[in-house]
Amino acid sequence: MVFSVIAALGNPGKEYVATRHNAGWIILDALATKAGAEWKHESRFPAAVAKTTFGGRQVFLVKPQSFMNLSGEPLAAFLHFHRLPAAEMVVLHDDIAFEPGQMRLSLGGSAAGHNGIASCIQHFGEAFVRARLGIGPKRHPAQDLADHVLGKFPAEDLQRLHQATPDFLLGLETLISRGLPAAQNFTNRKPPLP
Catalytic positions, please? Predict the structure, then answer.
């Protein structure tokens, strides 16, 4: 498998900075900083796009600037414009099934209730790799899921996310350079940070 695009789902706007739903943007921004990549706004998609070398390959980094639930449309437009198949894309997104500090890589499958992923599947199918970033479950069963994912990370959880970021980036680099099974062996067996 060849991967040419690393995308991250999130919501644009200052009010969404450091929210759980924007976990993917936090990690992709860290990757861009490490790689020395510069974001440019592409109005035709619309998305923030950077091109860099990562894992020994030229890759696009993409942050759709639509809101989360509409993420599939700009990503589909980006793939179409660059004549790339969905199978060459990795999508980073938040996942309540895992604790902060965990990342799980998987290929295909359902949206599992994630509206951003549902939009991606609707617009370009299931053949992309998901990098599922743990944000932890709802605080209590009665809490509205939207309130949970749109809430700010508690300081402790944000710290765990930042502490795990080097491992996340190494996992993504392994994915690009050595493929999905090798990357899964690294990321999917790691316990959450204490």
Answer: 21
Domain layout of the chain by residue ranges: 132-143+153-183
130: part of which helix (H) or strand (E)? Answer: strand 129-134
- Based on the number of CB atoms within 10 Å of its own CB, is 188 exposed (0-12), middle (13-18) or buried (19 or more)? middle
* Mean pLDDT, rounded, for 110-117: 91
| Counts for the chain of helices (H) and strands (E), in that order | 6, 7
Confidence label for 176 from pLDDT (cuts 50, 70 and 90): very high
Long-range contacts of range 80-85, CB-CB < 8 Å, 24 or more positions apart?
Answer: 81/44, 81/45, 82/4, 84/4, 84/5, 85/127
